[in-house]
Input
Amino acid sequence: MAASVWSGYLTFGLISMPVRLFSGARSSGISFNQLHRTDLHRVKQQLICPLDNQVLERSDIVKGYEYRKGEYVVIDPEEIKKIEPKTAKTMEILEFVKSSDVDPVYFDASYYMLPEEAGRRPYALLTKALEESEYVAIAKLTMHNREYTVFLRPHEGGLMLHTMYYEEEVRKVEGFGAPDVELKDAEVKVAHQLIEALAAKWEPEKFKDEFQENLRQLIETKLEGGEVAEVEKPKKLAPVVDLMAALKQSLAQMEGKKKPAATVPEAPAARKRTRK
Output
């Protein structure tokens, strides 16, 4: 099992249970090294003090907060540990809310929460209660040198934890919202039909990172000495002038892409008779 990123206690009223958190998702992809163009040797990054041009070791580095231009207060890791709030080791559930009340824009990272042996029973109880009540839990947690508000929800018989952004961290964009336009009922009706034509069951395994696949193919081609083929680019679309016509054309295209009914495969005996 992967290493946990946090361990401590989850408290629920007077109930306390030891738990661990494990990363629930992380981005992955092809990474490149930086090379010297002329000899293709990997370059090395060094920490250099610009005052005396001295190359520094990691042990020479301290953390400093710039409180005035060019002036710093030095912060020691042990001093940071001294001011950790109680949520560094204890995650207290503060309230329960309906999941639909929490806008996904607040979600940051996802984690699996697993109970230690002593916490299995209260963990199972909380999970079942959340499943049946359709509520989620809001708690506070300190991790990676910051305190998060977190969202706990039942998932596949266990609990998932999502760290969340604070209100002041969620950006507002001027002008965002419903455009001041009048829509025709017929346009809305065809839009609904287009949505239904594209409706499907959520199956995340269907979706792949095509750019990463193209990068892997590019690397293989270069290794084999082949020529890199350019991927066909989409044509520039003209601005929509007639919205209804565009909707109807889109709907016709979607219906044309629908899979035909599956044909019944030829029986093995019949195939055998056609062999020469």
